[in-house]
TrEMBL record:
It comes from the Bacteria. InterPro entries: NAD(P)-bd_dom_sf, SDR, SDR_fam. SUPFAM superfamilies: NAD(P)-binding Rossmann-fold domains. This is 3-oxoacyl-acyl carrier protein reductase. Belongs to the short-chain dehydrogenases/reductases (SDR) family. Transmembrane segments: none annotated.
Amino acid sequence: MMPAALILGASGDIGQAISRRLAADGWSLYLHYFSHEQVIAALQSELQATYPQQDFLTLQADLSDLSQLNQITENIFSLDAVVFAAGVTAYGLLVDIPVAQIEALTRMHLVAPMALLTQLQSKLARSGSGRVVFIGSVYGGRGSAMEVPYSTVKGAQSAFVRAYSQEVASLGMTVNVVAPGAVATKMNQMFDADTMAAVQAEIPAARLATPQDISYYVTMLCQPEAAYMTGQTLYVTGGWRQ
Ligand SMILES: NC(=O)c1ccc[n+]([C@@H]2O[C@H](COP(=O)([O-])OP(=O)(O)OC[C@H]3O[C@@H](n4cnc5c(N)ncnc54)[C@H](OP(=O)(O)O)[C@@H]3O)[C@@H](O)[C@H]2O)c1
């Protein structure tokens, strides 16, 4: 049977790259989005036309609102992998970020994934080679001024996979983080050209990552053969700030 993956944030730049690569590898996909309905509709029709033997379903939910998670879980049948590629940052000094925004960030990056996994774990276990991959961040390790809550929840994702991987390893499941450095996506569009040039000058690989640089490692971790590496955070940063 065709393997199936749930991609949270499939409408994002990294999420789309992951979706395209998994589809090319023969996966059927549940494509989650939040606000960009047209992006996900275009992705769905592109993938359905290219891979007519596979299934591509779309699911909408705000991950910062836990009451919406059943819009995802109630529509999932069999499942072999979950990729958490949704995310936003809160940019500013900690003292200037409203507590409500810190709470929303925590729900979206941490509480919602844990709540979803409590619902989906039995399906992943039934797969025999269940895979869970988070898109974390290099800031989860090193931390960053001006993005303190974001760095905190990303670091907590790495702590979560270290712990949870031990709980589910005997079920054949692996749980890992792929932690990018700076990726050329719309998440960084709020920064001006000078700021981005300064970031690029710091990166040993001398360029930002493309979404494809990141999706390569995600699809690798989703393979049934990737059965014995778990609880890890893979830094994919071009050598930057590791
Ligand atoms: N870009 C980077 O430099 C970088 C570096 C390290 C880590 N990351 C991480 O990589 C992941 C993907 O980011 P990206 O660069 O691909 O950004 P992106 O293109 O802005 O995509 C963000 C994704 O998150 C979804 N999303 C936003 N708010 C949401 C909410 N309240 N509920 C549910 N989904 C929501 C978006 O859905 P809609 O578009 O449908 O609203 C979209 O699918 C994030 O976890 C990010 O923290 C990015």
